[in-house]
Design goal:
Layout (H helix, E strand, L loop, with lengths): L4 E5 L4 E7 L7 E5 L9 H12 L3 E5 L4 H10 L6 H16 L9 E6 L1 H13 L3 E7 L16 E7 L6 H10 L4 E6 L11 H17 L2
Parallel strand pairs: 3-4, 3-5, 5-6, 6-7, 7-8
Antiparallel strand pairs: 1-2, 2-4
Helix pairs in contact: 1-6, 3-4
């Protein structure tokens, strides 16, 4: 492990994580990825670096254990189990707020794919503890009945070529009652693999978090 890597010990599971806290950090953003991804995701790592450049701390961690991943590969039973993913995220959030380096921090979530739905469900459960949520190519619609209960300022980012997901984000945005915004990145696909598109996502997210996590 590097100096920034750690084991997050929850009540019933241990998860691998990577914490970076810049000096005088404005707050802490936890990353909630979709199935098949991990804390090592190049896309999330790239966004996290830009957040830290804006003086925002980041916690990337694996929502699923190695055992979970093996079971998921066979059954696909966890990919859309949003309450399960949200419970993990909620547990990690409470853990982080109890650690000396991040105790009392303002909290934000950066979610992608089904991780965005888990982030919104966790934000609804934790109320004012979570100040901001950013979804990248997410499925916020899967947060269902929790959407109107979200208090965190929420930014939904979708690729302009992600035709199947745009209406799902528009629907979810309409159900949110918090401060909210929907941004469509022209020419970008679901994974934002086109040149410059992920940089646009990171810039939008960094600005959103810097504005809403500031004490």
């Amino acid at each position: 492990m590097t100096a920034n890597e750690m084991i997050i010990s929850l009540k019933d599971v241990k998860l691998a994580g990577e914490l970076h806290v810049p000096p005088d950090a404005l707050g802490l953003v936890l990353f909630a990825h979709g199935s098949g991804s991990s804390r090592h995701s190049p896309r999330n790592q790239s966004v996290a670096r830009q957040l830290r450049e804006r003086n925002v701390g980041t916690l990337l961690f694996d929502l699923l254990t190695a055992e979970d991943e093996r079971a998921e590969a066979v059954t696909d039973h966890l990919r859309f189990d949003i309450p399960f993913l949200a419970r993990r995220l909620t547990g990690v959030t409470r853990w982080a707020l109890d650690q000396a380096p991040t105790r009392g921090f303002s909290v934000g979530y950066f979610g992608s794919s089904t991780g965005a739905a888990a982030a919104l469900l966790a934000a609804a459960e934790l109320g004012e503890t979570v100040r901001a949520v950013v979804s990248r190519g997410g499925r916020p619609d899967l947060a269902g009945a929790a959407l109107p209960r979200v208090k965190a300022a929420t930014l939904l980012i979708v690729g302009g070529n992600d035709a199947a997901v745009i209406p799902l984000n528009e629907e979810a945005c309409g159900r949110l009652r918090c401060e909210k915004a929907l941004r469509i990145v022209p020419g970008a696909s679901h994974l934002f693999e086109e040149p410059g598109s992920l940089e646009t996502v990171a810039a939008l997210a960094a600005e959103w978090f810097a504005d809403h996590l500031r004490p």
